[in-house]
Amino acid sequence: MDTSKHNRAIITVVGKDTVGIIAKICTYLSNTRINVNDISQTIVQGYFNMMMIVDMTGSEKPFEQVQKELGQIGGEIGVDIKCQRTEIFDMMHRI
User: Fold this and answer.
1) Which of 91, 67, 85, 78 has the alpha carbon at shortest distance from 7?
2) Which residues on adjacent β-strands are paired with residue 49?
3) What is the C-alpha end-to-end distance of the chain, expressed in Å?
4) Alpha helices of 7-52 — where are they, by DSSP H?
5) In what helix (H) or strand (E) does residue 36 lie, and over which residues does it extend?
6) Which of 64, 82, 83, 95 gives 20 to 30 Å between its CA and that of 56?
7) pTM as predicted
């Protein structure tokens, strides 16, 4: 099994644009030893949308704890943050 793929996750962030959204999320990821492999973000008519592919191999926290903590950060800064394992995301979006 490809362990690097197994440890990847997709993080999505959606909400009203405010200062510091990326900084807050990336600081958490860095402190948790989660590496950002790819990132895309846009702002459309004042609404922020970001998708990140991250590698969780270096994190000592369980996936479920990271999900919960990212959700809490989203609540603090007024955005919706979702974290899914890439294999689940791929299965949900397979045609």
Assistant:
1) 85
2) 14, 42
3) 23
4) 21-31
5) strand 35-44
6) 95
7) 0.86
